[in-house]
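Re-run requested by the PI after the first attempt was lost when the workstation crashed. Everything re-entered from the original request form. Ligand of interest: pantoate.
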Amino acid sequence: MKIIRTTHSMATWSERLRREGVTIGFVPTMGALHGGHRSLIQAARLRCDALVVSIFVNPTQFSPTEDLAAYPSPIAHDRALCREEGVDVCFEPTAQAMYPGGFQTVVTVPVLARRWEGEARPHHFAGVATVVTKLFGMVRPHLTVFGQKDYQQAALVRQLVNDLNLGGAIQVRPTVRERDGLAMSSRNVYLSADERRIAPLLSQALRAGRQMIEGGMSDVAAIERSMRQTIEQSPTMYVEYLAVCAPDSLEPLSLVTDRAVLLGAVRIGSVRLIDNLLVKMPGRKSRATR
Ligand code: PAF
């Protein structure tokens, strides 16, 4: 496995492979790789000749009050996982290489970034959209794989790729979960033993919402109330949002008539957890069969 640290070498490597007709798969990450990342890497590995994983803790998507300095960076572990999964290139640029003095361009996707994570973390998505655009420019992937865990991020990247004609396909893979339902995340290591025990309540709340919709309940206020009640079983977990939204626009629904995405964010102590589930209202009987 090759480790590339400069933006120029990354672009040159991709340019050469593209000229040779090699298809490039890409999984952008901030490191601290876990089972969720492994599934993204495996999905990309299956569909492409060459595979690039970027490991870059992107400072511009953290706010000054967030955990940039404390963000886990187990680089030896990350490289070993990449080697195991047959990754060809680990791209590990420095912050200085990505954002040299004088850097000023910012990419925004204003409508999709407005709600939910965007409300809680106002600069987050501009940081994500900008770094992803830069990475695409260097890696020039034929296919990039993202996780459904960051649902709003995946929706925003799809929009970005369409709007800016960045080329290459985007695939979104299902969230990988621990046995008790907790979505895998690099931030789970911040949870104390007590917090870890109650963390699965978020996925339980979303599952309760999904079950109601699958049972034919369309009233969003009732669904949201029930999801909230699940979280309120713990006095130390706080809801930031629990919402039933349109799966593409992420606008809140008042009535579920077809597909929806249930989005949730909670806080336990100083840790913020997000999760989501896609759901479909069971088909209504047509007049002919009623
Ligand atoms: O999902 C992540 O890990 C990051 O937001 C990404 C897409 C690598 C951009 O820094």
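Saved to the shared folder this time. DSSP finds ten helices and nine strands in the chain.
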